[in-house]
Design brief:
Layout (H helix, E strand, L loop, with lengths): L8 H6 L7 E4 L3 E5 L9 E5 L11 H21 L4 E5 L15 E6 L14 H16 L1
Bound molecules: guanosine-5'-monophosphate.
Length: 140
């Protein structure tokens, strides 16, 4: 089993050492915008406690994350008048994981619209405006 590296970028976001566009938090989870969004409203749900990925996470961490994923799914559906939501979660490099702190991608989807290719940095003003829409949907 690979071990957790507390210097990963999401651990730094949780500690406030690097900024993020925060959408939501509760006792166990934290949600923020993905900086290289593959769809408008693409956000990431992470546990506050250390877990490298699904393989070493506790059942409680997985349950807390999935409850928040569902909450964010409803919020992004509403904020972007989406037709559906894609949830992605990758484990280890061979499984497509690049950041080694457990995270769930929540991606609002529209009929006939493909996900954008990975790796393109967002315009930060656009990201902020989209985050505001999601926060508003969460508070309705
Ligand atoms: P994965 O590990 O699931 O393959 O992908 C990691 C995700 O984290 C990617 O979608 C990437 O855009 C996102 N990401 C990487 N670095 C940062 C960062 O510093 N801030 C934010 N908000 N997202 C990041």
């Amino acid at each position: 089993m690979m071990t957790y590296d507390s210097d990963n970028i999401f651990a730094k976001i949780l500690r406030g050492e690097i900024p993020s566009e925060k959408l939501y938090e509760d006792d166990a989870t934290f949600v923020f915008m993905d900086i290289m969004p593959r769809a408008d409203g693409h956000c990431l749900v992470i546990p506050k406690d250390a877990a490298r990925n699904m393989l070493d996470a506790s059942p409680a961490q997985l349950a807390a994350c999935l409850a928040t994923v569902q909450k964010m799914g409803h919020a992004v559906m509403k904020a972007f008048a989406a037709d559906g939501v894609t949830v992605q979660q990758f484990n280890e490099a061979a499984g497509g994981q690049e950041v080694f702190h457990l995270h769930y991608h929540v991606l609002p989807r529209h009929d006939g619209v493909a996900l954008r290719p990975p790796g393109k940095m967002a315009d930060f003003d656009v990201l902020k405006a989209q985050a505001a829409k999601i926060r508003a949907a969460l508070s309705e």
